[in-house]
Design goal:
Helices cover about 45% and strands about 15% of the residues. By secondary structure, it is of the alpha+beta class.
């Protein structure tokens, strides 16, 4: 019997779930990763550390929690909700002593000034350092939802400021304890 020279790729590579070259670069940095996933209904943002037995999720926050915990009344998949999700996760990270992360978007191709970078901007404003190019971050007007008011007529900006204030108050209380 002749041996085949064909080497079968790893299962997650064949399924298109993991780019191992990119993952190795992340792991070699020895820094926690900000893992951002966008589903059909929400954003999932996690801070993950590498462990040889399997990655450890240090912190997690979903954009759907904005409605439950902070009274966000609007869509949880738009730019303002992405920013607020990043802002909350950033505050949580600082409380846990995590002040620097690197962005891991997986196989998704992020768009300049898009929702993923709105989440990054929220983390940056909370005080967490993420290596980035400032030109990729969305404008302040878009983060507050002023572009939504133009075509939907909903005033998201006032609710945005209210929710951001609630987030700040919540983390000030836990900081004093």
């Amino acid at each position: 019997m002749a041996k085949s020279n064909y080497v079968l790729a790893l299962k997650r590579r064949r399924e298109g779930k993991t780019n191992y070259k990119k993952r190795l670069a992340f792991l070699m940095s020895n820094k926690p990763r900000l893992v951002v996933r966008i589903t059909n209904t929400q954003f999932i943002a996690q801070i993950v550390r590498y462990n040889p037995e399997g990655d450890i999720t240090e912190l997690q926050f979903n954009s759907s929690s904005l409605k439950k915990k902070f009274g966000w009344e609007h869509n949880v998949k738009n730019l303002p909700s992405a920013y607020l999700t990043g802002y909350v996760l950033g505050k949580m990270a600082l409380q846990k002593g995590i002040d620097e992360v690197i962005l891991d978007v997986g196989l998704r191709k992020p768009h300049r000034k898009g929702r993923i970078y709105a989440l990054v901007k929220g983390m940056l404003d909370a005080g967490v350092y993420i290596p980035h190019d400032p030109s990729i971050l969305p404008d302040e007007d878009r983060l507050k939802g002023l572009h939504i008011k133009k075509y939907l007529g909903k005033d998201i900006a006032s609710k945005f400021d209210e929710v951001k204030g609630k987030i700040d108050k919540m983390f000030e209380k836990t900081k004093k304890k």
